């Protein structure tokens, strides 16, 4: 079996299916119609006039958009893609398509419009050489059928101020490992409008070493196209600087009724900086509780509270969904931390592809080739998307009945091989 046999089914079949409807790429001239169709699909009246797209839509890459048109030429569906970089385990960076603005008019639903747009989009993403596509799902049941699996998770953590004391860290500093919580830096409170490019610089440093994080292209910051603090919505931003004055973390926050301090995101280039920023917001006067909107589910902050019950985790949610489009490239691009071999029988029903791969890791270097060997695991490509960044273990998906372990010990072997150095996390909204 060779690689070509595995990837051979082309997209002719999909194009034949699209008969009564046309799907075409967008240009800059389509912006207003595109945005109007997305608003109608989501049932949102635009807050600002649509002409020119508005700030939120200004980062759209119109050469990557798709419009579905009815037989009489009216737009009935939309799909966009942004060009991002995704940080993989091992801190390698991969170009990815960030799928967004997916919508079909309520009058044209459940006739296969989304399915056709997904086929066309995946074909285009592949032909650009991107081997991964990612998205945030409005509803969990939509995207599994197209090969996407939930891969990163996020939690809202609420801490009442009167129980917000942090425990004194027991860990003692050594030359190699400074004590977590020991902070020789400073925190300055700025208004969002005063921050210049410092948030962009901190975020960029952070995302390069955080598996699961996406780049935020400069134009997003320049245009204010995104949620706070990318947008210019009024916010206070606590900016942390190290002892040399280099900015290395921030917490963007607002205080609303009833005296809740809500942190949009805490971006820190290491754990001690996160602790310093957490200590800062938790110590804010005239506040009854602090809500951290986005923390990784296993974040150490809960363990740092003197009262471990003080941190109430809620809204545990899937965040980034991942879809592999070239399995050998994807598996050899990420870092691996344990040597071993695994045979994966991967089914991709949406693209009509099925192949068995031998994954070999030797001294951190991965090889992935088609094989006829007996499989260790049999799985759908969406489950491989969930495993890819290390956000869930193979054995969890075996126990859930998603993945078939084809021989005793296969799940444990896969757990060891897929293990990553830290849990993936993504805060970028797109
Ligand atoms: C989600 C949406 C784009 C689906 O468009 P659509 O053209 O109706 O989807 P399709 O007809 O191509 O459906 C393809 C399959 O997905 C299923 N599906 C579509 N939307 C679904 C949903 N919201 N929940 C569960 N299944 C869904 C369909 O039943 C169909 O299944 P089948 O292949 O087994 O028959 C559309 O309902 C919409 O615009 N919703 C509001 C905006 C939104 O949520 N967009 C997604 C942003 S991430």
Walk me through what this model shows:
The radius of gyration is 23 Å and the shape is globular. It has 430 residues and is of the alpha+beta class. The N terminus is likely disordered. The strands form three sheets. A seven-stranded mixed β-sheet has the order 1-2-3-4-5-14-6, sandwiched between helices. It has a seven-stranded mixed β-sheet with strand order 8-9-10-11-12-7-13, with helices on both faces. It is built from 13 helices and 19 strands. The protein is 24% helix and 30% strand. Strand 2 and strand 3 form a beta hairpin. It starts with a helix and ends in a 12-residue tail after the last helix. It binds coenzyme A. Coenzyme A binds next to helix 3, strand 4 and helix 5.
For the biggest sheet, the summary is: 7 strands, mixed
Instruction: Give the radius of gyration.
Output: 23 Å
Poorly predicted regions are 3-18
- Describe the strand arrangement of the main beta sheet, using strand numbers: 1-2-3-4-5-14-6
Mean pLDDT: 92
Amount of beta strand: 25-35%
Q: Span from first to last CA?
A: 39 Å
């Amino acid at each position: 079996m060779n690689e070509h046999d595995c990837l051979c089914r082309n997209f002719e079949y999909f194009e034949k299916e699209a008969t009564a409807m046309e799907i075409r790429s967008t240009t800059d001239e389509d912006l207003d119609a595109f945005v109007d169709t997305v608003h109608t699909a989501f049932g949102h009246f635009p807050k600002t006039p649509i002409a020119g797209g508005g700030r939120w839509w200004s980062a759209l890459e119109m050469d990557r958009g798709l419009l579905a048109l009815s037989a009489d030429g009216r737009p009935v569906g939309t799909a966009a893609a942004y060009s991002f970089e995704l940080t993989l385990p091992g801190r390698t960076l991969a170009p990815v398509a960030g799928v967004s603005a997916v919508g079909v008019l309520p009058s044209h639903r459940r006739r296969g419009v989304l399915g056709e747009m997904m086929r066309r989009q995946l074909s285009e993403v592949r032909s650009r050489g991107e081997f991964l596509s990612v998205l945030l799902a409005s509803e969990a049941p939509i995207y599994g059928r197209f090969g996407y699996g939930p891969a990163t998770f996020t939690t809202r953590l609420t801490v009442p101020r009167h129980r917000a004391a942090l425990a004194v860290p027991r860990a003692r500093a050594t030359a190699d490992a400074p004590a977590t919580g020991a902070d020789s830096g400073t925190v300055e409170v700025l208004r969002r409008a005063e921050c210049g490019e410092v948030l962009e610089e901190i975020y960029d440093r952070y995302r390069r070493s955080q598996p699961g994080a996406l780049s935020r292209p400069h134009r997003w910051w320049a245009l204010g196209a995104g949620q706070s603090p990318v947008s210019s919505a009024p916010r206070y931003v606590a900016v942390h600087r190290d002892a040399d004055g280099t900015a290395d973390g921030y917490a963007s926050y607002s205080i609303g009724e009833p005296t809740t301090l809500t942190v949009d995101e805490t971006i820190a280039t290491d754990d001690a900086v996160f602790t310093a920023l957490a200590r800062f917001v938790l110590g804010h006067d005239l506040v009854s509780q602090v809500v951290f909107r986005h923390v990784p589910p296993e974040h150490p902050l809960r363990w740092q509270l003197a009262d471990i019950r003080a941190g109430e985790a809620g809204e545990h949610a899937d965040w980034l969904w991942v879809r592999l489009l070239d399995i050998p490239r994807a598996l050899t691009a990420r870092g691996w931390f344990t040597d071993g071999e695994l045979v994966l029988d991967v089914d991709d029903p949406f693209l009509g592809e099925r192949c068995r791969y031998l994954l070999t890791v030797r001294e951190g270097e991965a090889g992935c080739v088609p094989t006829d060997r007996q499989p260790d695991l049999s799985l759908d490509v969406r489950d491989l998307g969930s495993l890819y960044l290390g956000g869930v273990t193979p054995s969890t998906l075996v126990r859930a009945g998603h993945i078939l372990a084809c021989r005793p010990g296969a799940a444990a072997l896969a757990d060891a091989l897929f293990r990553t150095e830290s849990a993936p996390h993504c805060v970028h909204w797109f």
